[in-house]
Amino acid sequence: xxxxxxxxxxxxxxxxxxxxxxxxxxxxxxxxxxxxxxxxxxxxxxxxxxxxxxxxxxxxxxxxxxxxxxxxxxxxxxxxxxxxxxxxxxxxxxxxxxxxxxxxx
Length: 105
Hints:
Elements: E1 2-4, E2 7-9, E3 17-24, H1 30-37, E4 43-50, E5 55-61, H2 64-74, E6 78-79, E7 82-83, E8 85-88
Antiparallel strand pairs: 1-2, 3-5, 3-8, 4-5, 6-7
């Protein structure tokens, strides 16, 4: 068993699923999203990033069922005067060469 944030991740639950949450206000915090997404299920991790105009977050729920529920509950949900977009986060691409992109030997 390992811990991600506050909730344990086990073989039974897998690593949960990451959701990507976009179009957030720059005032939206990790705590705001954790409190909101807890309505869908157990939240393992929340990571908000912000740029000049908008914020984004990766939110990991403990189970796949909770992830599907969160997407259906919160996609197009209005938070801090903005309509959020919530969907499954795509996995990061790993280059098979092991070299950084654009590397020329």
